[in-house]
Amino acid sequence: METRITELLGIRYPVIQGGMAWVAENNLAAAVSAAGGLGLIGGANAPGEAVREYIRKVKEVTDKPFGVNVMLMSPYADEVAKVIVEEGVKVVTTGAGDPEKYMRMWKEAGVKVMPVVSSVALARRMEKYGADAVVAEGMESGGHIGEATTMTLVPQVVDAVSIPVIAAGGIGDGRGIAAAFMLGAEAVQMGTRFLVAKECTVHQNYKDRVIKAKDIDSTVTGRTHGHPVRCLRNQMTREYLKMEAEGKSFEELEYMTLGTLRRAVQEGDVTRGTVMAGQIAGMVSKEQTCQEIIEEIVGQAEKLLKLN
Ligand code: TUI
Hints:
The protein is an alpha/beta fold and 308 residues long. The chain is 43% helix and 15% strand.
């Protein structure tokens, strides 16, 4: 399954791990990279020095390529963007915004830049600014999402740009990879399937909730305020959606969700915490190592694509 992406990044398999906030720390990133994919450290809302520590820990255990995801709504995005250059990180992905202001600095430092986009317009703009690839993410994904589905977004982005496209959102096994390749993608990014990886240090309650989830167990909060976030239904989402329907302000709703992702990820409060996960949660049935996950899904995809 060699593509322009495996060549660009120097990885064995065209599988990239999502840079999930609070979840994608050094253990998961190192394990995905060691298994031949591209592991990502999720910068999320962490300060630059915390991300530096994660980067150093990954470097200690693997010499395989790995990357960092910069969450552009973070108050620390500037710091994290600089730490990436200082630490010689080879690959960066960005999310939840337009990374234009950092592109020159990263390109000059030789960092491969792969912004996550949820529209053709942003994909085009990213190509113009010198992006090496784009991750086209459909609204099947967990966390902060756009409007288009993966099935519709990926081929439209593929037609609009010449740089390689990585498909994300709703991909959980080899069938998803094969489908994404049929749409013109040259790699996939997966988050939810790696959430339950053995090396992923998210609280066991969070993993169990994902494993238990059915096809329609996720919902989207924040649509009315332009900050849609996909997460699994629980007491938290019910209260949020009720308040949203009552017309509560963005500030009030933001205040209500403050710290709730951390509460779910670290404390295992899957009732009142925010359990971000994608629509494929219903397909995730067991914990596996990153190597087992990657080898299983790549094997399935190769068979479907008749590559061996
Ligand atoms: O970034 C993500 N997913 C995320 S970030 C995140 S952290 C968070 N925590 C609490 C509340 C909210 C977020 C959790 N999940 N995915 C990549 C992604 N980026 N999806 C969509 C976009 C996106 C959306 C709009 C990228 C750019 C954009 O517009 C930028 C512009 O100026 O046009």
